[in-house]
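Hi everyone,

Forwarding the result from last night's run.
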Amino acid sequence: MSKSLIAVVEDERDIQDVIAYNLRREGYEVVTAERGDEGLALVQAKRPDLIILDLMLPGLDGLSICQSIRSDTATQEIPIIVLSAKSEEADVVIGLGLGADDYMPKPFSPRELLARVKAVLRRGSSNSKGAEEMLVHQNLRIDVLRHQVFLKDTELRLTATEFRLLSALIEQPGRVFSREQLINRVLGESVVVIDRNIDVHIRSVRKKLGVDAGLIETVRGVGYRIVSNI
């Protein structure tokens, strides 16, 4: 099996070196860039299996890069872990809202970053294991093996995290999942994330569902569920 290729776009050389060293020690192949414009070109040329992306970059900021990656059919399925020295909740919301799959504030533990990397890559490689090939609920149809979601006859473009989140809800219509349960189902029990991450992903999925956004119901004080009938 070939090694996963990870692109690290980070302008602080010492942080970039630490990330690259730890990834290579775990057996990953790593390519790096220090400028945002160079990082975007690198992603488009190499098509890595995962991107670790800083938000504050010279040349082109990380949010613009994230937006460009998600708007390009050739790269829109590549998972992204966003890094930022800013810790405000607004940065989490913006990064995840633009399609990032996970978020880590600086400073961070290399061990925790590796856990996030493994969790994100595992989600992409094990989507179909033990799952139904097709999930259908009202106007939604999820092709698990092909990693495609259709609303009536229109294909929806979801990130890897959004795909797993929607699949987890649709597998058991009517069941209420707490945020913690969804985090464990979507990100893995070994990964520590804030509840706000799930809220932002839910908001993004609802936006993509359009008039069918009501399929995902908020159960106040508990979590979320796919309603059986609307």
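The longest strand covers residues 5-9.

Cheers,
N.
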